[in-house]
Structures are given as C-alpha cells and as structure tokens.
Automatic annotation (TrEMBL):
The protein's name: Galactose-3-O-sulfotransferase 2
Biased composition (Basic and acidic residues): 112-130, 176-193
Region (Disordered): 107-130, 143-193
Chief location: Golgi
Organism: Cyprinus carpio carpio
Superkingdom of source: Eukaryota
Keyword Membrane attached: yes
Keyword entries, A-Z: Glycoprotein, Golgi apparatus, Membrane, Signal-anchor, Transferase, Transmembrane, Transmembrane helix
Transmembrane residue ranges: 37-58
Lineage, broadest ranks: Eukaryota, Metazoa, Chordata, Craniata, Vertebrata
GO MF terms held by the record: galactosylceramide sulfotransferase activity
GO process annotations (BP): glycolipid biosynthetic process
Membrane topology label: Single-pass type II membrane protein
Keyword Nucleotide-binding listed: no
GO cellular component: Golgi membrane
Length: 586
C-alpha cells in the first residue's frame, strides 16, 4: 500500500493537471459549487483508499482459502441491517447480543448481492467479513481438535452452479431411502393426553422438546420462531443454529447437517430445536435431530402469500421489471425464468421450501400426480401442518401437539407488515395466482382440510374456540403489561433501535416499544416477546457459543477501529486537498 502522503500528493498533482487542461472546464462546470466539489473529491479519495487497502490484503491472503471465502461471501448479507445506536442496560445476554447485532447478518444474501457490485462500502464489508471469518476459523481450530472445519461450500457450489430449481445432484422428488425411519406421528399421541379446556396446566402428557420447525416465507413463521426461542431459552434447550452466526441455514441451498454450528466440531451433544430458514432435506435433518423429533410447519393461502412475496421480494429478477402483480400474471410470468437464481420466490415457494420440485406442471394429469406426491412426502415427514389464516387456532393445536401450556404459545405478531402496504387482490387476480402456483394451491387446500379434520377429531370446535378466546385474552394482557402503545407501531417509532425489526423491500415491518416502568422480571419477559428474529438468533448464538461469539465481537471491534483510522486519514487528506485546490483556483 502506498503511504498516505504519496497518495495525497498524487491527487494534488492530478488536480493541478486537470485545472490546466481544456476539457476540465466541463468538470468544473459540473462541480460548480465548492460544496459539491468537496463532495466529489471526498468520494474519489474514499474509493481510492479502500481499493488500495483491499488490494494489499487480498494479495496477502491468496491461498487455498480463497475459493471457500468467496463462496461464503455469497451467502452473506451486506449492510442493510440497522446498527443499534442506543443500548439499554439489559442484563448479560441481551447486552452482549446488542453488540453482536451491530454486525451484518445474512438475510437476503442473493438479492442484495446484485446491488453491491461497484459499491466500495460493500467491498469494505466483504473484506470485513472475510477477516472475521478467518479469525473465527482460527478460534475454531483452537477450540476443537478437529482439523478441517470447512463451512458449507457444498451448498454454495450448488448455488453457484445456478442449478435452480432442479438441482440434478439432488433430485428433489421423489427421493427418500426406505430404510430411514419416519418421525413419530403426533397423531398417534393425540389420544394420550387429556385436555381440561380451561385450566391448561392440568395436561397429563409429556412436553415435547425435540422439535423441527420448517420456517416458510411470509407465513407468520417469525412469530412461531419467537415462541420456540422463548420456550427453548427458558427450558435450557439447545438450538441447532446456523454456522458462523448466520441467520439462516444457507437457504435456498438444500439443508445439510454441517450447516449447523457444533455439528462438525461435535461440540454439541444433543440438539433440541431446529427452526431457522432452510430448504428442507429430510435425510440431512435426521442426522442432526434425535429420532423422537416432532416436525411441523405452517402454510398460508398462496393468493395472499403471493401478494406479500411480491411486495417483499420486488427486487428478484422475476418481479423486478413489472409494475404490479397483476401485470406479472397477465403477462403469464414472461419475466419469470425458473433457472435464474432467486426466482424460486416467484412460483410455488411452499413446495420449494419443503425441498421438493417447484417447477410448474405442464398438464392437469401431471398436476394431479405431482401434487399427490408432494402431499404424501409432507405427510410422511411432518406431524403437523399449521395454517396461517387460522393463526390462533394453529397455536392452540400446536400447544396440544407439543403438550405445552397456553402461556408457552402466547405471543405478539412479529415481522408483520403494516396495513398500509397491503393490497387486496381482485377475484380475477386471485384465480390467476392459483393457476400460477398450482402446486402450492393444491397442497394448501389439502392441509387446510386436514387441519380442520384434525381439530374435529381431537379437540372439537367448541373447545378450540374456548382456548382461542383464552389465548386472545392472554395476549391482550401481555400487550397491556408490556407495550407502551398497547400494540405494534411503525419502525420509525420504535425507540430502542436495537429492537427495530429488519426492513426489506417495499414492506413496512412493524415493531414495538416497551413500557418504561417495568420491573426486571417483567422486562425480561416483555423483551423476549418483542425481540425480532435476527437479534434473537444472535443472542442465542452468543449464549450457546460464548467463545465463538466473543471472538467475532472482538474481530468486529478491531476492524471497526481500523476502518475508523482510515476514514479519518482520508477526511484529513481531503480537507488538505480542497484547501489547496481552492487556493490555486482563486
Ligand atoms: C434489575 O437489574 C439490574 C441490572 O441487572 C440490577 O442492577 C438491579 O439490581 C435489578 N433490580 C431488581 C429490583 O432486581
Ligand atoms: C436452566 O439453567 C439454569 C442455569 O444453569 C438453572 O438455574 C435453571 O434452573 C435451568 N432451568 C431449567 C428449566 O432447567
Ligand atoms: C433462462 O436463464 C438461463 C440461465 O440464465 C438461460 O440460459 C436461458 O436462456 C433463459 N431462458 C429464457 C427463456 O430466457
Ligand atoms: C379452509 O377450511 C375452512 C374450514 O373448512 C373453509 O371454510 C375455508 O374455505 C378453507 N379455505 C380454503 C382456501 O379452501
Ligand atoms: C473513531 O474515531 C473517533 C474520533 O477520533 C473516536 O471518538 C471514536 O471512538 C472512534 N471509534 C472507534 C470505534 O474506534
């Protein structure tokens, strides 16, 4: 890297040269005001600085690691996540997690990757991530005797190969080796517990604590995640969390056991709950989770879901060029190319998330056959499928299936969109969506039916209704106890920025404010109820892997400090340059 004086000198010379040559009159006209000129100069210098620094470090680091690192960068999210400025004096875990939450977290890695190119800040970020990963890798080696802990390159290669959505190396459907055991069906257990409707703590069953929740998109699944997180945390259960503090299990790649922190290093003996975003792969999940694991998931009506997906994932190639969902559908999805990455959000995404082939069937007979296969596969792997449209009913059903209490499933709605960004669809559009997502529509109808059949054959609708009312009352109490405004508010009004939910696309995701005068215990409970997914995931990671998290935080601090000095030097140089040019111009 060049010493700063030399860079500054060069830039100064460059400006002298420019002022002397005739073509720069245009430049000068463009930079007519001093203010704008200073801006311009500042930008140029920053870009230059970062580029030079990158060059130096990258050259040093050229080794066998490069390929791995590059692929890792692809599954990482850049700066979109907010940086908490105000930090509460929360107790231990939470203050640590607040520090951690300042780091970038992966959420929609692929989409944002497109906007990144040519952005020096993201270059910097990539470098920052790279250094962090190197540090972490070292720590990991020290912590464990296991030698080669390679992060999930397999999955990333799959993605790099852009073999979406029909990855040939893993025929999505049908594929299951017969010798693999099924998870126990919860239906078999349904009659084992007796439920005394009003007092829900008099159940006589054994609470389940080996759980897999397949988190689906735009289906209120973040709220269920919060329920699982709180339950697991208060019962000292171990979560199968994504490697390297990622927030997702390298979705949309097929899940693989080694995506889970602690699997490859064998530092975790038993996992209880696996619930972060993944593309389901039954065989691999079984490698991580015990045999008696309870599998469940949630579906939403594909019509409402599509509207939601369109707003949230407007940046994906399929939606990018169209103005509205109507336009997209009327064109028959002309902008949709199934083999372009990220487009899986645009068609039969439920089927996709369950790890099955989501390409549209060509004919009605194919639709019949494939939807039957999909349903069979889901029923084989999952004991319970909830329905987002009947969310409270779903929670009651879940409570019974898991043998938990109503308090355990009481929750606030998280990651929910403000009404303002919702739009009702016409009947015509709704029909088009059903046709477009024909597989998802079939399986939604099927599981909506079985959902109600299950209620009828177990609880009965009257009991269900009673418990739903109880649940609603509990939620109202919690809202009054915890929330300043008694309900959700727009993100701009969230006062504690470390509790601000992740914002993405054109959707406005609402958050909450806690009341100020809470005692410690209540505050803890309330805090957990409103903690957004990304922040909570980091907090749990920190709790489960304190050494790895501390190493990460230390690396982040170090890098932030070095970045600080660089910026300061650049600013100082800029001021010098500007003073100089201002003098020579006058
Ligand atoms: C509440 O928590 C804070 C910080 O952990 C502690 O200093 C304080 O003593 C606690 N107050 C009560 C009443 O427990
Ligand atoms: C969880 O662990 C903490 C600390 O080890 C302990 O005090 C608490 O009783 C445990 N809770 C449960 C439900 O096992
Ligand atoms: C879809 O994308 C693939 C890969 O990017 C490309 O090869 C193919 O030509 C595209 N198909 C259409 C119909 O545009
Ligand atoms: C889901 O099931 C309920 C109860 O049977 C029914 O009223 C509703 O129309 C169903 N929804 C769909 C989209 O089929
Ligand atoms: C960055 O520099 C400023 C001014 O020198 C200093 O106040 C601040 O603490 C520094 N930040 C970090 C993270 O080192």
């Amino acid at each position: 890297m060049l010493p700063p004086q030399r860079i500054a000198g060069r830039v100064r010379r460059a400006f002298h040269w420019r002022t002397a040559s005739p073509w720069t009159t245009c430049v000068r006209v463009a930079c007519c005001s001093h203010l704008r000129f200073m801006w311009f100069a500042l930008m140029v210098l920053t870009v230059l600085c970062v580029a030079l620094q990158m060059l130096g470090v990258v050259r040093q680091a050229r080794s066998a690691k490069v390929l791995k690192l590059v692929s890792e960068q692809l599954v990482r999210m850049p700066a979109e996540i907010h940086r908490p400025t105000k930090r509460n004096n929360w107790e231990n875990l939470w203050s640590v997690s607040a520090a951690i939450a300042e780091e970038p977290v992966d959420q929609h890695p692929f989409i944002q990757r497109r906007d990144e190119s040519g952005n020096p800040r993201s270059e910097e970020k990539r470098e920052y991530n790279r250094i962090q990963d190197t540090v972490l890798e070292d720590i990991r080696k020290k912590l464990t005797s296991t030698t080669k802990a390679a992060p999930p390159t397999v999955a990333n290669k799959q993605w790099l190969g852009q073999e979406f959505p029909n990855q040939p190396q893993r025929p999505a459907f049908p594929k299951r080796t017969p010798e693999i055991k099924k998870p126990p069906q919860s239906d078999n257990n349904n009659d084992k517990y007796t439920v005394k409707s009003q007092a829900d703590n008099t159940v006589t069953c054994q609470p389940k604590n080996h759980i897999v929740f397949l988190k689906t998109h735009k289906t209120a699944s973040s709220t269920i995640l919060n329920i699982l997180y709180r339950y697991g945390e208060s019962h000292n259960l171990t979560f199968a969390l994504p490697l390297n503090m990622h927030s997702q299990l390298f979705y949309p790649a097929f899940f693989a056991a080694h995506f889970v922190e602690g699997v490859r290093t064998r530092s975790v003996k038993e996992f209880h709950i696996l619930c972060n975003h993944m593309r389901f792969n039954s065989q691999e999940v079984r490698k991580v989770m015990p045999k008696d694991t309870f599998y469940f998931s949630i579906l939403r009506n594909p019509v409402a879901m599509m509207e939601s997906l369109f707003v949230y994932y407007k940046a994906i190639p399929a939606f990018h060029a169209v103005k509205s969902l109507e336009e997209f559908l009327i064109q028959g999805g002309r902008s949709y190319n199934a083999s372009v990455p990220n487009n899986h959000y645009a068609r039969n995404i439920l089927t996709f998330d369950f790890g099955l082939d989501n390409t549209a069937p060509e004919s009605d007979t194919e639709l019949d056959r494939r939807s039957a296969e999909i349903i069979a596969a889901m029923e084989r792997d999952f004991s319970l499928i909830l329905i987002s449209e009947y969310f409270d009913e779903s929670l009651v059903l879940l409570k019974h299936a898991l043998c938990w209490s109503l308090d355990d499933v009481s929750s606030f709605r998280l990651n929910s969109r403000s009404e303002r960004s919702r739009r009702p669809l016409s009947t015509e559009t709704a029909e088009r969506v059903k046709e477009w997502n024909s597989l998802d529509w079939r399986l939604y109808q099927h599981f909506n039916d079985t959902f109600w059949k299950r209620i009828d054959s177990t609880l009965g609708r009257a009991t269900l209704q009673q418990e739903v009312e109880l649940l609603k009352a509990k939620r109202r109490n919690l809202e009054q106890m915890c929330l300043q405004e008694g309900g959700a508010v727009d993100p701009a009004q969230v006062q504690d920025s470390s509790l601000k939910p992740f914002q993405y696309g054109a959707a406005v995701i609402q958050g909450y404010n806690l009341r100020l005068e809470l005692n410690n215990d209540t505050r803890q409970l309330c805090q957990r109820l409103i903690t957004p997914e990304l922040q909570y995931t980091s907090a749990l990671y920190t709790k489960q892997f304190p050494q790895l998290a501390a190493a990460r935080a230390a690396a982040a601090k170090k890098i932030a400090a070095s970045r600080n000095t660089t910026t300061h030097r650049a600013v100082k140089r800029n001021i010098e340059t500007n003073v100089h040019t201002a003098m020579s111009n006058s």
